[in-house]
Structure formats: C-alpha cells, structure tokens
Amino acid sequence: MSNDAAVAEPNLNVESYRLPRSVVPSHYEITLEPDLEKFTFAGHEHITVKVIKPVKEIVLNSIELTVDKAHVVSDDGKTIDGKTSLDEVNERLTISLVSEIQPGTYKIYIKFAGILNNKLHGFYRSTYKDKNGQEQILATTQFEATDARRAFPCFDEPDLKATFGITLIVDKNHTAISNAKLKSEKIEGDKKEVVFEPTVKMSTYLVAFVIGDLEGSKEHVVDNIPIRIWAVPGKMHLSHFGLDIAKSALSYFARYYGIPYPGTKLDLIAIPDFAFGAMENLGAVTFRETALLVDETKASHAELERIADVVAHELAHMWFGDLVTMKWWNGLWLNEAFATFMEILAVDNWKPNWKRWDTFSVSRAQAFAVDGLQSTRTIEFPVRLPEEAQGMFDVLTYEKGASVLRMLEQYLGAETFRKGVSLYLSNNKFANAETTDLWDAIEEASKHPVRKMMDSWIFQEGHPLVTVSSDESGTGIYLDQERFLFLADSKLKETLFHVPVMYKAVTDKGTVSDKALLTQKRIQVKLPGKLKWIVINVGGHGFYRVSYSPQLRQRLISDGLKDLESIDRFNLVNNTWAGVLAGHTSLPEYLDLLLALTKETDKNVLETIVGSLSFINAMIDPSEKPKLQAFIQKLLGDAKKHFGWQPGKSENELYREARSIVFGALGTIGADEETRKEAKELYTKYQVDPSCIEANMVPAIIRIVACCGDEKLYDEFFKEFKAAQTPQSENRYLTALAAFSDPKLLERTLNSTINGDIRTNVAPMIVAAVMANTKGRELAWKFMQEKWQTMEEVFPAGLLSRMCNGVTNLIDAKLEKEVIQFFATHKVKEAGKLIDQYLERLHVSVQLKEKEEAKLAAYW
Ligand code: BES
Ligand code: ZN
Predict the structure, then answer these.
(1) CA distances from 611 to 311, 411, 605, 622 (A)
(2) Which of 244, 302, 196 is nearest to 696 (CA)?
(3) Which residue in 596, 18, 570, 63 sits closest to 329, CA to CA?
(4) CA nearest 43: which of 29, 57, 26?
C-alpha cells in the first residue's frame, strides 16, 4: 500500500463501522453453489429479521460480491422491492426499499455471486496434488474476523447472532461439510444438493463450509458427540494423534465448564492452504495440515505439542468464543486468552509429563518481550475497522492474556476460578459478554474483589518490574514496583499494578512459601527469621519481572540455584536477559550467570539461553564470531557429553527435546566442528535407515546439515520438501531452505517464496526466517523491499505483518535507518501496532549493540 493517497479512506464515524440496530437477524437460509473450475460461486439467501423501528433502508455487510436482486417479504406475504448499492470501502450493502417498513418480522431475500479467491479468506480455494500428481481444488472458508461478508451478505458483527441453515450444491462425487449435521442429500445429474440441519445461535464469523474430495476418519463418539477428522485423500494414517487429543479435550472441557458441548457433531478438517493455525468454526474446525496431521512415531515433541495445543485451543473455543462470544472485537482477549489458557490446562490434563505450564514460560516470555515496549497496547483495546480487528491477534491478546488469567487462577485457587468461569459461561450462553461480566461471575464465585486487581492488567499497558531488597533488620524484605520498560521513560514508569507476589524465602528459622499483594509503590514483608535467600514469583505464574538487590542476587546464585525448580531458573535467566536489553545489567554479568548453568538440562531454560545467544550472534560483528562460538562450545560442551547423540531408555520427551536444543545450537551458532561432522554422518545414515536418529533429533540435524550445506544438498532438500510424506517433514525441509549459508542458495529460497514453489501460507515466514539468518538478512531485506508490491498482492492479509518481524534481526544502525524509512512510506493495513513494536525492538537491539559491543570484546 505504498501509494494509497488516491484510495478512498474509510469513514470513521461510529455509524460507518457499526451496523444500525434497527434491523436484527435471527435466521439465515443460505444456498451456495461453487464452481471449482471457474473459481466462482452463486448464492441466494433468506434472512429472517426483526425490524425494531420503521426503516426505509436495510444495511448489511458485503464485499467482493455482486448482488443481482434484493427484496423484503413481510410476515403476511407482501413483497417490498429494494434497490441495492454496494459501498466497497465500508464493506456494506444497502437495500433501499420502495416504501418504509414498520416494526415486525420480515424475510430479506438476496441473490448474489462471488469469486473463490486465493487469498485464504472469505470463501476461497485451496489446491493440492492427488496421488497421480494432478492438481485438485477444494473450496473452504475462513471468516474470522470480518470475512463472512465475502461469502454472503450478512450482519457481520459478533453480537448479531443467528441460526444458519446451509445448503450447498456440489459435484456429486464431492464431500461437503458445514457446522451442523447433514439433513438430506439429493443427487441430480452431476450435482448433489447437500442440506444441513440449522445451527445453534451463533456469530457469523463462525460459519464454515468445506467442499471437495475429502476423506474422513472413522467416527469416534465422546459424550454422544461424533468426532471425525477430514483431509485430502491419503492422509488418514496421520489422524490418530489429533483424534486422541480431541477426544480427551472435548470431555475435559465439558467437565471443566460444567456445560455440554454446544454442537451436535464435531469435524476437524485439515486444509492444505490455511492462513492461520486453525479456526474454531462451531462443529467444523479447520486447521493447517501441520496443526492436525502427524505420524506420531516420527515427530518431535515440539511438533506433537503444537498439534495438541492447537486442537485443545480450538475445542476450548467451542464454549469460550462460540457459545459465549465477545460483544465486539475490543474484547477479543475474552476469546483468545481464555482459549489459550484452557488449551494449556487441557494438554496438561492429557499429558502431565509434558509439564505444559512450565513450557508455557517460553510463550509468556514472548509476551514480556513485546509488553516491555513503549509501543505495547492494553489487552483490551479499541477496535473500529475490520483491519483493526485483525491487528488484535497478537501475543498480547493470546500470551499476555493467558498469563494474567493463570496468575489470577493461581491466586484464587483453581477450583474457585473454575466455578467463576462456569458461572460466566452459563450466564451468557448463546449470547455475548464483556470483560466486566467475567469479573461479575468470578467475584460472585470467589467473594474476592478481583475486578480491581484485574483491571490494572487488562486496561493498563505494560507490566511491573518488582525489585526486592532486604530491609534494615534483615528479617524482612521490601518489594518495590515500577513499570518495566526496555526504553526508560520516567512518566510511563509510574504505572502501578495489583501484583500478587508469591515467594519462597529461606531463613535461619526455616523456609516459608507465602503470598503478598503489592498494590503500592513499595511494601515491606516480614519473614520468620533472618533471610538467607529468596525467590520472588516462585512457580513463575505472575506476569511481572523480578530484579534482586545485588546482595540477594548473589546469594540466590551461590546458595539457592541448586535448589531452584526449573521454572525459577528459567525466570532468573530470562529476567536477567531482559535486564541486559533494558540496560540495567551488563552483558558480561549475564554471560557469567550462564556459566553457572553448564549443568542445565531443562528444555525451557536451554531454549531461553540459546535464544539469547542467537541474539548476540545477530548483534556482533562477524569478526567477533569465533569468540562467541568458543563461548557456546564451553557453555554447552558438558551438556553435549551428558546427553550424547543417542537417547537412553527411560528418557522423557522433554529431556529428548532438550538434547536437540543443545546439539542444534552447537552445530549452528556454536559452529562446533565435531558436532557438524557427526550430524552429517548421521544424516547420511538416516537417508538409508530413518530409524537411526531419535525423532526429536531429526529437525536439529536437518538444520545443522543445512547450515553448512552446498548446492547439491540444497537440491536434495528441495526435493525432500516437495516429496514429503508428512506435513512435519515438509515443514522441516522447507525451513531448512532458509538455514543455508551460501547467499546464492538463500537467493533461491527467497525467489521460491513468490514464484509459487512455496505455499503463500508459509512463504512470509520463510522470508522472515532468511532475515533471521545472519548470512541472508541483508539479502532478504533487499528482496522484501524490491518485491513488496508482489507480496502485498499474493500473501494472505495478516501474514505480511508477521513477515515484517524479520526486520528485528537487522541489528545495525545503518540498516535500522533504512527500515524506519521504508515503513514510513509502506503501510501494512492489518498490522495494528506490530510495525511500531518491531521498530522499537530493533532500536533497543541497536542501542545494546552500541553500548555493549566493546565490553563484550573485552570479556571474551
Ligand atoms: N480464532 C483463531 C484463528 C484466527 C487467527 C482467526 C487470526 C483470525 C485471525 C484461532 O482460534 C487461533 O487462535 N488459532 C491460532 C492457534 C492457536 C493454538 C493459538 C493460530 O491460528 O495461530
Ligand atoms: Zn483462538
């Protein structure tokens, strides 16, 4: 959108982005007939509406549809003709009636036609190759946030709930799926008319239909609900794992919420081209293939965890989001934060060994990383235009939102919290709610004034840094709060939060675990004896950072470290690293802390350590790299010996994943020759005998080999990517194409992102991955600038902004200037605050480079 001066600006009066409430729908009867060869569809609908006050005009949402005819029929059978006009800028269809109609019940009839687009929104087409290598098409939908209006004219706002009767006219050999159960099927010639039962009352963004040559699994019944998985033919052997978690999560949620599943059946459908991870259409949940289909004997823990998460997340939405929906998009967190929180609960319930709440610390850290910026936003945030709704799907809604819910749950107690949630859902079922309704219900269930506490987290930007120091007597502590910011600002710093502080203190009179509520700038907390060492935010559930006075920090590291749980070590490392980025802590001090952790085997701690080392790798001058590599080899050398390449017998998955993190880091940013050589040998063996490498190690080995691979290997990997038998294998080889070091090869990868070799649902992420590769970043940056217009045209909305995340790797003052200039003239419509956040993060990094580079050179 570089030269958009000529494009009409949408009107920002409330009347232009919210539909009038004078006409409200109660039922839609929609018939659609897609043409999978011409990429078009024809449709007509009857919408039953209640007219509340006399109107001469009916306004609905519609975009990229042509409307042939529209009229209104009154209860007593009178037809009132209408003239239609489309306003593409405000995405509206206005039906001007020949005469005013009075309050009462009417049916609106509209005949329309549209295109099956390839932008992965609205009613769109997806392609795949069948077993004969022939290209096949399927038609599917993605309506959230505001794209139902691309498939049929509708009152496309979440609180205008209605029931939907869908009829699809399809090729007689095709399968058609929608939200509700099949009602009837009738074949006429080459066509089949498929009629579905009416849905429950729900929002337009949850309507879905999928049409094509689909193959379904056997039906599995849980609590009387039949569950099936669907995919393009030949993939049913990859459906078992997804089915297992779906069955477990569905019954878990019905019990947790104390409310039965709101639909009558549940289909989980894998779609080859899918913009997001998955979509919670009631009864017809759609997924990208990597998020549903897997060969569990060959997948890594991370790949399996992803599927369990996504399935559980979408099923959590069947209640949170589908049964009870936010009134408007500003309350999106009620949907997404809850689904994320519930997803972790359900996966934790299914596989306690996965320690899902510990692993969630990695996601929480991503939210911290954005929320520490001045350009963060409040969890609940004003939304007007459709593109602003799109901008709400970010880590602040999901991960920060889920974190503050977990914090509240832990503070109140799990069962009290559950009762409040259940009450909220049953109070608002088949309707809409706002944040305040949630606090009403939780206050009623808990008898605690949670609104006051939670408002400070939901309606204020940022999060606190809690500083702890010994009081004068040594038998107590001071807790001080100020807002945590990467770029200091004395005014912003003042924000106060209601911080539930859980702590564990070791004193000369024994150990205490207790909680305090920090609502002021400072409080004093008394301890039973003289303090030895203390962990603040013990268990890691609080959404705040912690900083220890030098003395307490020293004692924590020298005396406490060996007794800390892994989550507390994670937070110690992550908070110290954040302190480096914010300029509170020097980089050498951080690296010293890492050297105290050479025995670390926890996957999450290792992941955060390796993340920070990758950052340093991106920050330093290439001439300094050998020193960083030597440091990494020293830091992870013990771990490498400890883990070894081959797994022991009774290892759990997390431990295996930890091994792959250690070897992955040594073989890539650590440039450890021995690791690289061994990885290459193993890869050669793996091609003959795929069982010779433990499943978790395969992705790491592929990355290592790519990192030092030549053109021949690149060609091999490209072939493997194209011929892959599982979505995971496809994804591993594809992402490896961004990990090569030779600029010529990276250039090829970049070209593949826009020439059709790579699907548009991953291409933007591959551009970002090349930008994250120090050998390719300038190349990718140049490519992105040159091909911007093409990318705007072909990449799905929403993914372009995620691609731009790549620029945060351009840690260099000169490149930073270029990035600022570029985004000053190139706007990303759906990005919300994302671009500002990337720019600020880049600035933080460039500042750190300037400040710490010399210190670092002296340290090595
Ligand atoms: N409702 C979202 C899908 C969505 C995302 C629609 C963005 C419109 C814009 C869905 O429930 C979701 O959150 N999907 C996540 C995966 C989930 C496990 C966090 C996704 O698609 O990334
Ligand atoms: Zn969601």
Answers:
(1) 27, 30, 10, 18
(2) 302
(3) 18
(4) 29
For residue 371, report the phi and psi dihedrals to the nearest 5 degrees. Answer: -75, -10
Q: Residue with the nearest Cα to atom 1 of ligand 1?
A: 279
Which whole-number Å values give the CA distances from 799 to 261, 281, 293, 764, in the listed order? 32, 20, 22, 6
Annotated active-site residue 444? The verdict is no
- Kindly report the CA angle at 171 between 169 and 176, in degrees rounded to 5? 60
Task: Report which bound ligand comes closest to the CA of 121.
Answer: 1
State how far Cα 322 lies from the chain centre: 18
What's residue 9's pLDDT? 62
Please name the residues in contact with 580: beta carbons below 8 A apart, sequence gap of 6 or more: 586, 587, 589, 590, 848, 852
**How much distance in Å is there from the Cα of 184 to the middle of ligand 2?**
32
Q: What is the pLDDT of residue 16?
A: 78
Cα–Cα distance between 148 and 278 in angstroms, integer? 16
Residue 276 Cα to ligand 2 middle (Å): 10
pLDDT at 8: 58
Whether this model's pTM surpasses 0.70:
yes
Q: Which helix (H) or strand (E) holds 104?
A: strand 104-115
Measured CA distances, 390 to 1, 12, 123, 404, 750 (Å): 17, 17, 17, 22, 26
| Residue type at 427 in one-letter notation | N
On the 0-12 / 13-18 / 19+ scale of CB atoms within 10 A, 223 is exposed
Task: Return the ligand 1 atom nearest residue 275 CA.
Answer: 21
Contacts of 494 (CB under 8 A, 6+ apart): 482, 483
77 token code pair: 């059978």
Q: Which residues in the chain come in under a pLDDT of 50? A: 1-6
Spatial CB neighbours of 278, under 8 Å, sequence gap ≥ 6: 285, 286, 287, 288, 291, 292, 310, 311, 313, 314
Query: Token digits for 443?
Result: 């206050």
State which amino acid sits at residue 564. Answer: L
Q: Which of 252, 147, 273, 290 is nearest to 208 (CA)?
A: 147
SS3 label, residue 517: strand
314 pocket-lining for ligand 1 (C-beta < 6 Å)? yes
Sheet with 464-470: list strands edge to edge: 522-526, 476-483, 464-470, 545-548
- pLDDT of 710 reads 98
Closest listed ligand to the CA of 144 = 1
CB atoms near residue 228 (< 10 Å): 18
